[in-house]
Amino acid sequence: MSNRITELFNIKYPIVQAGMVWCSGWRLASAVSNAGGLGIIGAGSMYPAVLRKHIQKCKLATERPFAVNVPLLYPDVQEIMKIIVEEKVRIVFTSAGNPATWTEYLKKNGITVAHVIANSKFALKAEACGVDAVVAEGFEAGGHNGREETTTMCLVPMICDRVKIPVIAAGGIGSGRAMLAAMALGADAVQIGSAFAVAEESSAHPNFKNSIVGAAEGDTRLRMKKLVPVRLLKNEFADAVGQAEAQGASTEVLVQLLGRARAKLGMFEGDMEQGELEIGQVSAMLDQIRPAAEILSAIWKEFLTEKERISEMRF
């Protein structure tokens, strides 16, 4: 398949792995890239020196393109950008911040830039800043979400109607059927997080992976809306946040409740009760841990099967 995204990133399939904190190290990124998608190293959970090592290991593990995701509001972003340029990373996905801050710098250094957005206003702003593509991330997604709580089904066509650059759909996509639906809405590709979080190569703790594949419908909720909205798997910490929010807790109280390294505690160290467990609604559809290449292949095959089924329909 060839379209604007496969040509932009020089990849075989229009499938992009999300840059998930504590899940997206070099092993997962290289595995996805080797399978024909675009693997992404998630810099959000890495100190600069750690990121450099992951980039170097990824370059040794794959000859295919890969990217680095950089949350712009995180500390050390200046050092992270310097490392990305020094290590000659060719693709960067920026998120959680103003794309005007770093897009020009990255583009001047020959780097292709995609920016993650959750509403039309920021899609247009990102396009005006010169990004090459946007990721339209709907309410169903794990990790950070938009305050508007717009679902992927509504968000993607709105963004596609407003920008001229390629659009990558994200949020609630973990199957070939969902991928086909996103493409029908106008997307050029899909970004998949939760389904790759449970890949064998994911750096997530086995406890977290097992909790994901054991999740049922309704086991995630959008929390921390006064801070940065994040979708959490149910546990003692998520319940405490929900109770605090129901009682009208202030931003300061929520910050204190969140504390430090809460996501690392759960997703990387495996504390399933006190950790912050970021995952999407599609977790209820995931039922096994398997290699990333197998996950990508299954999604692509189902996409082609469903595409053929619909093409044979009589109207």
Topology:
Blueprint: H1 4-9, E1 15-17, H2 26-34, E2 39-42, H3 48-61, E3 66-71, H4 77-86, E4 91-95, H5 103-108, E5 112-117, H6 120-128, E6 133-137, E7 143-144, H7 152-162, E8 167-170, H8 176-184, E9 189-192, H9 194-197, H10 206-213, E10 220-223, E11 230-233, H11 236-246, H12 251-258, H13 262-268, H14 292-311
Parallel strand pairs: 1-9, 2-3, 3-4, 4-5, 5-6, 6-8, 8-9
Antiparallel strand pairs: 7-11, 10-11
Helix pairs in contact: 2-3, 3-4, 8-14, 11-12
Structure commentary:
It is a single chain. This protein is 42% helix and 15% strand. It starts with a helix and ends with a helix. Helix 8 (176-184) crosses helix 14 (292-311) and helix 11 (236-246) packs antiparallel against helix 12 (251-258). An eight-stranded parallel β-sheet has the order 1-9-8-6-5-4-3-2. Strand 8, helix 8 and strand 9 (189-192) form a beta-alpha-beta unit. It has two domains: 4-204 and 283-309, Aldolase class I (TIM Barrel); 216-281, no CATH class. The chain has 14 helices and eleven strands. The chain is an alpha/beta fold and 315 residues long. The mean pLDDT is 95.
Search tags:
42% helix; 14 helices; 315 residues; single chain; alpha/beta; TIM Barrel
CATH architecture of the largest domain: Alpha-Beta Barrel
Count up the helices: 14
What is the CATH superfamily of the largest domain?
Aldolase class I
Largest sheet: 8 strands, parallel
Spans of at least 5 consecutive residues with low confidence: none
Specify the helix fraction band: 40-55%
Order of H and E elements:
HEHEHEHEHEHEEHEHEHHEEHHHH
How do the strands line up in the largest sheet? 1-9-8-6-5-4-3-2
Overall pLDDT confidence = 95
Count of domains: 2
